[in-house]
Amino acid sequence: MACSLAAVGQVLPGTSSPGPGSALKVDVSLVPVHVVVRDPQGRTVGNLGKDDFQVFDQDKPQVIKQFSAERTAGQTSDLPGTIDPSALPETRFTVYLFDDIHLQHEDLVRARETANKQIAHLSSFPWERAALYTTSGQNHVDFGADPAKLRAALANLEPQGRSSASDCPPMTYYMADLIDEKGDREALSIAADEIVSCAFGGNRRSRREASQMASAVAREKTAIGKAETANSVGILKRLIKAMSSAPGRKLIVLISPGFFVSDAQAQAEITDLAARSDVNVSALDPRGLLPTADFNATRTIYRSASEAEDAALLEALTDATGGLFFHNNNDVEDGFRRIAAVPEYSYMLAFSPQGLKFDGHFHKLKVTVNDGVNLTVRARKGYYAPKNKP
Prior knowledge:
The chain is of the alpha/beta class. Helix content is about 35%, strand content about 20%. The chain has three domains: about 25-90 and about 345-385, Immunoglobulin-like (Sandwich), CATH 2.60.40; about 90-160 and about 225-340, 3-Layer(aba) Sandwich (Rossmann fold), CATH 3.40.50; about 175-220, no CATH class.
């Protein structure tokens, strides 16, 4: 798999490099920002110029040094309204990363069928390149492969997550971590109550034994969860690194229900990597609407916390790169369209940080449109300023 990932960062045979004006030229002191602006109906806005935008770095206004407008039917132009409609846009490389470790069979089948339709549609555009990877590493199809091979690999995707010895009680990795690693006695009590019901027919006299069983299940779930999360995060990091050097636009579409990362440092590292890389990460949870209530109020609180922790990494990654996180919605097909669709109009702008240091820290970015009250602006939320820059 390492060899295959290395190929992601290369211009592959049969792919076209961006034309001479299709990419924003920057020097080492410039920070590039890709921006998409939509109206209240969701349509992209293509008639804006350099003076319509404002950029803020750490809440400090910046001077836009370079600006270009882009249309999918043509390449960039330095002047809005003068886009050549006959030219091809920049090549876009999209990796569909299926989280077959954490997805259940029904959700994986729904996602792979919908992804197949989306990939078939996008393959008709000459500037689109697609690849397929999985968090288990069991299947992958690189850029430039026969589309039939890509479809076959999609059809053969199956869940690869490890099963625990017992599903009594059903326990998430987050819940197991609370019990096994953090000593949360309330979480242990909830798990023990569930074991009294599912293993002892509701006999409260077995409460002590149920508590011991809950601790044992938590240890097993924690071990499995750590291994599966490490595998998922590791592959995602390698993909981001490999794609960062590819030409053109880079997009990773992560199809996942989310997964808990117990190590805050590990979550920060991959989010930092995503923010540094010129790779857009979007995520889609194919499970649809999730139940929100339980007759047990305390259990509902823990369930909600577990869902939030599972989604935390996906939210952080998409937010850091200006991507989209589609979740808690039954229209999975619309989700794929929204995530993978190429906006008809977009903008590339660049600025040289004024009044700020290249300090190696994360810088918060904000892009606004003058008089754009009813417009939605999507751009990456920040960047890292490497040390020792001029």
